Each structure stands twice: as structure tokens, then as C-alpha cells.
Queue: 4 jobs
Job 1
Amino acid sequence: MPAAAWVTLVIAALIIAITAIGLLRVIFHLRAISATLRQVTGGVGTVAARTSTVPDRLTSVNASLKPVRDFCETV
């Protein structure tokens, strides 16, 4: 095999190796981002659960405040 063929094979192997290393780095970065997004999603779910609307169990409070609401509507 001529020397030019060996040089071509070595250069091709270097290009393939550098590309593979770059792709592995991208994979590791994407896995880290995925883990962070899972944590953020869990945090958002917790915030949403803790700041949800008042449950329907408090109808007695709403009934007690009906005169106040009626007065405010007349103003």
C-alpha cells in the first residue's frame, strides 16, 4: 500500500475519532440537561400544587362572605 493511502486512512481515523468524541460530549450534556429539566418540572409541579385554588370544601366561608361581595358589587 502506498504511503498516501496510509496517510489518508490515518487522517480519516482521526476525523472519525474527533467526531465520535464530540458526539459523546453532546450526549453527556444532553443527559445533564435532561436531569435538570426533570428537577425543574418536579419543582414547578410542587409550586402548582401548593398555590392551587381554594378547594370547594370552603363553601361555608363563601356563604359567610356573600353579604360582603354583594355590598362590593353595589359600590
Note: DSSP finds three helices and no strands in the chain.
Job 2
Amino acid sequence: MTMELDAKLLDILACPQCKGDLEYRKEEPALICHQCKLKYPIRDGFPVMLVEEAIPLET
């Protein structure tokens, strides 16, 4: 089951590493920072915004 993140939450979230914008990918579920090339997982409806937990994007 995929949970939607609240639009207000998405508006205020930023990459913890570069403070840049994030792309929400509901189907994965994850938040993507294209600048840092990192994917922040969403677990049980909560974004895990720790650089140590981020997954490098495949290039």
C-alpha cells in the first residue's frame, strides 16, 4: 500500500545535504535530489531524511 505525502510537507522538505529541491516519486516511494544524485526512502509513510540512509542514484 502506497501512502501519499501531504502537499504541505512536500513544500517544506529539502535535501539535508545541499538544501535543494526534492522530487517526490510516489511509485518507489522516495524523494529524489537530482543535484546530489541521492534517493531518500519513504518508510511507513515517513521520509527518511538522513544522508547516511540515502541511496545513490544509478547513472
Note: The CA atoms of residues 22 and 33 lie 5 Å apart.
Job 3
Amino acid sequence: MLREEDVKTALQSVNDPEIPVSVWDLGLVTNFGIEGHRVSVQLTFTALGCSCMDWILDDVKAAVLRVPEVSAVEVEVVWDPPWTTDRMTAKARQQLAAWGIQS
């Protein structure tokens, strides 16, 4: 049976290509759902002009497809609600601070 925790773990494994922090911990994943063996993911970005958008979208899809029992993944880019640093987890803040980046 496909579990939400397995999808969440897959999403946590995808790092932003520019900084070593997961898209989950950055708060880029706004929602995800499971219907049978299909997963839908809603994702936002820190900026409209993010140069890594395509890489992140491809990486998210590939990571979720590696979850056993997932047969299809749909990733939708959403801009509402807009991303802010308030969406980041404590783990992301610690990782960024270790790199000298203030959040």
C-alpha cells in the first residue's frame, strides 16, 4: 500500500540544486496527494525567475516515481500562497546558517 510517509520521504530527498537543503525543508512543497498509485505534488519556488525550476521539477518527479507502488506523478507549480522564509523548517534554517546564509 502506498503511504504518505513514503512520498514525504521521497520529497525530503530532493535538494535544491543551488543549496544543499531539501525542497521539503525549504517549504517549496505546498501540498501532495495520493489517489491509488498516482501522486500529485504542488510545488512553489522562491522566485518567478528561478533558474533551477526545470531541474527541481524533474528531480521531484523522479524521486516520487522511485517510491514502490507509484505508477504516475503529476507536479503542478503553484504561486499561491507565495513562498516566504516562514515556510522553512528549523532544519532548513540550521542548514542555511551552517553555510553562512541568514534566513
Note: The CA atoms of residues 1 and 20 lie 31 Å apart.
Job 4
Amino acid sequence: MTSSSKTIEERLQALEDHEAIRQVLAGYGYSVDGLNYDSVADFYAEDGRYLVDDTLDFRGRSAVASITKDEGHRALVAGGVAHIALPPYIVVEGNEASATCHTMIPRMGNDGYYMWRLSASRLELAREADGEWRIAKRQTWSLDGNPRGPEMLGDLRKVRRD
């Protein structure tokens, strides 16, 4: 369906969905850097997952939010890191959506900030009963030569990657 064949209500809903999803993406980074457990938890579905490369797999809202209580993460924040998401490419199909983007983590070093990690990120989201978009699954792949990150970026037009 082209935008010209959609009703004004459908077009408005699409704009609202995209903005809400951008807010989830941005808010997660601010919340994790702000060590705000409750805020991080609220961005995830109850059974949401966060996978980092093929090394970390946080299962469930509380497991993801517990990152904010992890001593290693807290030390990184105290030492000067920030989680930054670049503008996402968003696809919405009914009550499911995906947002694909680059994410980066600058870190304070002896001579100022440097890029510590650059990743491909994909969030699969679901609109829950309360109308809010929440992360059902988030996958990041470090852009370090592993082909999985570029493959995920290239697959950005699908709601589910599988």
C-alpha cells in the first residue's frame, strides 16, 4: 500500500509508531548509561532478550535490566562511556516492528575519547496490550570483520530476521 492510498489516520499511526520506536532505541542508551534499572526494564518485553555477538545472552526483562547493577558496567560508566544509537531504519507490520542501526560506544582514554565499540544492532519490537512498543529481541554484532553484522544490516527491510 503506498502512502497516497493510506488514510490520514493510517499515516498518522505510522508516524506515531516510528517516533515511539525511536524513543525506545534512544531511551535504552540513556537509561543504561544512567544506571536506571527500572527504565531499562520498561523498554523490554517481559520475556525480551538482548544478545551481544554470540557471547552474551540476557533472557528476560530483569536479566537485561540487571546490566545496570553489574559492577563491570558501572565501572565503565564511571570511567566515561556512552551508548549511542544512530538513526534507525524502521519497519512496522501491525503490532510487530524492527529497527536496524549502527550503535557505538565511545570511551574516555588518556588522550580523550576514542571509539571503543562499533556495532550493527537490530531490535525486534512488539506493541503490547498497553499500546507501548517494547523490545522483544535485540541483537548486536561488533563490526570487527565478522560477517554477521553486515549481513544483519543488509537484511533491514524485514520485521523478523529468524
Note: Residues 124 and 160 are 7 Å apart (CA to CA).
